[in-house]
Amino acid sequence: MLVWAIVGLLITSDKSAQNVLQKAEAHFYEGRLDISVKLLDSCLLKIDRTDKLTHARLLIKRGKMYAFQSFTSNVGYEEALASLFEARELLDSTRDFRDEAEMHIWIGFTYYAMRFNRGEGDYDRPADYFQKALVLSRQIGDARSEAEAIFYSGIIHERRQSADPMPFYRQAETLARKHGFKLELSYATRHIAFLMQKEKKLDEALALFNESLKLREEIGFKIYLPFSYMSVGDVLVEMNRAQEALDYFDKAHRLADQLGSKRVVALSLLSLGDAHKTLKDRTRARQYFTEAKELSKAIQYKTGVDYAEKNLKELDTK
Q: How does pLDDT run across 19-32, given as a tens digit for each residue?
């Protein structure tokens, strides 16, 4: 009821689709995906359907919300693709390349999340969509969208090990720094940090993870803050600073739980389990791994189940 009351107030106070889109994006930053979707749905019921471009933009935004829900909670894939494919049909007659590029990004992101979270499909399909977004972004000179498409292309290369992802992340970082795109910069620096971490360049990795974290805190990008807290914590564990890492994992867990990001909650529980395992606190480690396993089962997150079971078995055999 509270959600609908908020939506009602927003719609009646400002009926323009542009303002609805802006408000939906603000809720997205705060991690309030449910409110954002309800706001968009209410507007979709009231708009003039002959305005195909406005209709398509609302559907793209709706698809984006469900795409992020799919990534953070392992649900919403079908809703995301349904909205985005409907938008694609509308854009066929408008040929608005900026909106078309964004649509390709979120279709690609949904297919990427489906492969990454569920093991369904492959990475070739999202790669094709990210490439389409990149071509369109360069065609219209949209540097922000270009940086985003390059970044996601780097992720695909990293996941399928088809090319070195570092040049892609560096290129996205350069574009983002040049134009002041703080969100895209937070993406690039965090994934450069992962590569540094793999090479055991832990000081460099920690500095970049902290830079990404601070950027997200600065712009209020709450929906991804739990990931940033966990990244900093993971490096601290590798640096034999597990006690310090617990604070970051606790922050990640509390915020993810508050946002209802169930897959992220499971990841934070796994991180807490790892930290307590490192600190030789077998009781607490077992507790967190067990919670993570049960939640991962509930949301059909096989990677979380497998990791929890592996660690529980190790704790039981020692």
A: 999 999 999 999 99
DSSP state of 119: -
Q: Which CATH number fits domain 1-141: 1.10.150, 1.25.40, 1.10.4030, 1.20.58?
A: 1.25.40
Note the pLDDT of residue 49: 83
pLDDT in tens, 30-39: 999 999 999 9
> Sign of dihedral through CA atoms 201, 71, 212, 181?
positive
For CA atoms 224, 225, 230, 231, give the dihedral sign: positive
Helices (H), 95-142: 97-118, 124-140
Let me know: does 110 contact 123? Beta carbons within 8 Å: no
Token reading at 200: 């055991």
User: For the whole model, what pTM was predicted?
Assistant: 0.92
Nearest to 252 by CA among 289, 223, 227: 227
C-beta separation of 99 from 145 below 8 A: no
Q: How many residues does the chain have?
A: 318
Q: Which amino acid is at 44?
A: L
What is the domain partition of the chain in residue ranges? Answer: 1-141, 245-318
State the CATH architecture for 245-318: Alpha Horseshoe (1.25)
